[in-house]
């Protein structure tokens, strides 16, 4: 999508001048309703980096707080999601999607309401996974709850599509 006004720049380069494949490798997305394909947990995570080793996938799953998900199924990472009654909660699916983004290891991460469908227990785990994913990266996090972005370096508050406030969590909370 082209911006309605201005430019979107990465490292001083207009994104319209960046090869689409290169741009997609530069950015990881985790949406509020991240979809998982009807495939194994391993294959779902490998979508982030198809040539990754199983060891790297396991590290990404651990970093994304997914150990409990894997351990509850007899087939572990080989469990096929969406078949034979194997379904994940919204928060569990989010953690698998975050594991995919961790494995991809892009320098830019866009999180759109990444905790929206998480129950309280899963939200804590999703937040921990997001902290790991965000380490050393540029992160754009879209959230309705200010507490979700409490650790952000800078927060922009939009109202009716316009910038209403900006600052750190403690400044905006006042």
UniProtKB/TrEMBL annotation:
Report domain ABC transporter positions: 2-116
A Gene Ontology molecular function term of the record: ATP hydrolysis activity
One GO cellular component term: plasma membrane
Fetch the InterPro entries from UniProt.
ABC_transporter-like_ATP-bd, ABC_transporter-like_CS, P-loop_NTPase, Type_1_exporter
Give the SUPFAM superfamilies listed for this entry.
P-loop containing nucleoside triphosphate hydrolases (SSF52540)
Indicate what this protein is called per its UniProt record.
Answer: ABC-type multidrug transport system, ATPase and permease component
* Source species of the chain: human gut metagenome
């Amino acid at each position: 999508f082209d911006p309605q006004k201005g430019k979107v720049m990465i490292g001083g380069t207009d994104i319209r001048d960046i090869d689409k494949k290169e741009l997609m490798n530069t950015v990881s997305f985790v949406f509020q309703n991240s979809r998982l394909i009807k495939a194994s947990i391993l294959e779902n995570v490998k979508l982030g980096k198809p040539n990754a080793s199983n060891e790297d996938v396991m590290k990404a799953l651990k970093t994304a707080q997914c150990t409990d998900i894997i351990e509850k199924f007899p087939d572990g990472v080989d469990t096929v999601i969406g078949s034979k009654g194997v379904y994940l909660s919204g928060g569990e699916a989010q953690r698998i999607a975050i594991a995919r983004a961790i494995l991809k290891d892009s320098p830019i991460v866009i999180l759109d309401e990444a905790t929206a469908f998480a129950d309280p227990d899963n939200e804590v785990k999703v937040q921990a996974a997001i902290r790991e994913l965000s380490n050393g990266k540029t992160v754009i996090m879209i959230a309705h709850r200010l507490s979700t972005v409490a650790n952000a370096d800078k927060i922009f508050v939009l109202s009716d599509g316009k910038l209403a406030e900006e600052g750190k969590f403690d400044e905006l909370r006042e």
